[in-house]
Amino acid sequence: MLCTVLICGFFGDTGKGKVSSYLSLKDRTAVAVRAGVGPNAGHTVVYNGKKYKMRMLPSAFVSDKCRLLVGPGVLINPEILLQEIRLTNSERRIGIDPQCAIIESKHISADKSGHLAEKIKTTGTGTGPCNAERALRMVKLTRDTPELERFLTDVPLEINEAIGEGKKVLIEGTQGTYLSLYHGTYPYCTSKDVTASAACSDVGVGPTKVNEVIIVFKSYTTRVGAGPLPNELSWEEAEKRNWAEIAAVTGRRRRAAPFNYELARRAIMLNGATQAAVTKIDVLFPECKAVKSYEELSQKAKSFVEKVEKEIKLPVTLIGTGPDAWEIVDRREKFGKV
Ligand code: IMP
Ligand code: MG
After folding, report:
1. What tens digit of pLDDT does each residue of 290-335 get?
2. Which of 57, 62, 159, 268 is 20 to 30 A from 87 in CA distance terms?
3. Probe residue for ligand 1, chosen from 77, 112, 122 as the CB with the greatest number of ligand atoms within 8 Å
4. What pTM does this model have?
5. What b/e string do you get for 35-65 counting C-beta neighbours within 10 Å, with b at 16 or more?
6. 1 pLDDT band (50/70/90 cuts)?
């Protein structure tokens, strides 16, 4: 798998961060590049007993030789970016494209009041107003920001050269298919498209260069903010099932519902997915916690995976069995995906 795109098939928060951290370690990814909207995303990575909530850098930072890039389509909050660079001690491997747009305090204020805050219930991180200003061609870019100058690099060129040299490249999407401005539950969605095609465009990789699109689903569905969630459970019922989650960026409660096969099938179509990851199977079947081979999964868990595969007509190549990067069942070889 030379060039892989990782995206979410539901409403975000399906565990892309965890899957990316695993893939980067296992495959020794040479270059990982962050696509997607901006710091409205929160990717949780657990590695070596530490928990990280990544909002700007690729979750592949755990693989210490991996080059870490941010594509021009992504909105940058310099403060959060610099903090993550320090936290991960990754200064020497960072590359930011000069044409990323900068989120300023006026964007954050605009995102925290009126229509966006009250009706859409956005994350309040300024991404919508910043993208709006970008569309008006008035936004400030990373190339105008001296504090980021030392990190600036031609990200599309770096990635395409890496692909040309046969290196492993991972494109990390953010949010989820049904938060896409085009394909999601408009107006309850984010401020741009977030499907696999958009992720490629964000980083400057053409569609002919992509080998695999891994779509990530959680064993159940969650959504934060406003908008439809079919078969939504009460918070009490979600608590009973251990599905009651708190959002990484905003600290809000995540609304929960069972795995949705119909949404999954459409997401696979919209993203041209070639394989699926199903995370948090240990939440449905606690006996599967930290299991690393398919054979060791309980019969109930195997039946669930088989049902998913039958319904979505795609191999489930990765099965998350816990938050740590290494708590995963990897069946890629079996399906000829390595
Ligand atoms: P915005 O992206 O901050 O404008 O928020 C628009 C909608 O997308 C809101 O419902 C947010 O809760 C949701 N959203 C944005 N980013 C994420 C994410 O990374 N995970 C889950 N929901 C998100
Ligand atoms: Mg998240």
Report:
1. 999 999 999 999 999 999 999 999 999 999 999 999 999 999 999 9
2. 159
3. 122
4. 0.98
5. bbbbbbbbbbbbbeeeebebbbbbbbbbbee
6. low
Residue bearing tokens 């990280």: 52
Q: Residue type at 208?
A: T
d(CA 179, CA 185): 7
Known catalytic residue: 193? no
Ligand 1 neighbourhood includes 180 CB (under 6 angstroms): no
> One of 27, 43, 107, 111 is an active-site residue; which one?
43
Number of Cβ within a 10 Å radius of residue 92: 8
Report DSSP letters for 106-161, one per residue.
HHHHHHTSHHIIIII---SSSHHHHHHHHHTT---BGGG-GGGGGGB--HHHHHHH
CA dist 38 → 27, 70, 336 (Å): 26, 10, 34
Residue tagged 């069942």 (tokens)? 329
pLDDT tens-place string over residues 107-151: 999 999 999 999 999 999 999 999 999 999 999 999 999 999 999
The residue whose CA has the least distance to atom 2 of ligand 1 is 190
Pairing of strands 316-320, 275-279: parallel
Q: Is 27 an annotated catalytic residue?
A: no
What is the residue whose two structure tokens read 């940058």? 76
Q: Report CA(83)–ligand 1 centroid distance (Å).
A: 21
Which residue lies with its CA nearest to atom 11 of ligand 1?
122
**At a CB cut-off of 8 Å and minimum separation 6, what does 11 contact?**
175, 176, 178, 179, 221, 222, 223, 224, 229
What is the secondary structure of 42-102 as a DSSP string? -EEEEETTEEEEESSS-GGGGSTT-EEEE-TTSEE-HHHHHHHHHHHT-GGGEEE-TTPEE
